[in-house]
Amino acid sequence: MSELEEAAQRVAAGDRAAFEAIVRSTQAPLLRAAARVLGSREEALDVLQDAYLRAFGALLDGSFDGRARVSSWLYRVVMNASLDALRARRRRPTVPMDDSEPEAAAPGTEARIALSELARMLDVLPEEQRAALVLRELEGLSNAEVAEVLETTEGAIEQRLMRARATLRRRFDDR
Hints:
By secondary structure, this protein is mainly alpha-helical. Helices cover 72% and strands 0% of the residues.
């Protein structure tokens, strides 16, 4: 049994402090995945906090049944929260940012710019394809792991990935 599974069992048994071990060991990859889906580190931090609250509650109330690995289940919670945030964002009117003046060279500026460019590229994809592509190509999960996270079959993941790559190829080869 992995440390993550042990910590989850301890939380489920009432050891609330054990959740800190879960956060410590999963925060970086989950934040990275959410930021890549959302295109914003700040929004990803909010989503991750919400996802951890949901996960903590599910462990305490017993709604996490342990059939999935804890890491896959947490990715699923974060991906669902990220996709919910994307849907909410699309329903809200947005104010365009003034891109005429480049930001000063603040720490992390290059990373924010790269993340923003990646988000613009991925924004042309339907949510399911976007999530599959981020988890497979950017997070390095196997097709089986992506299927587990997104609660579908490996064949469905392969189809989503093929369609996503084809869409990106068509879209960006034209430029």
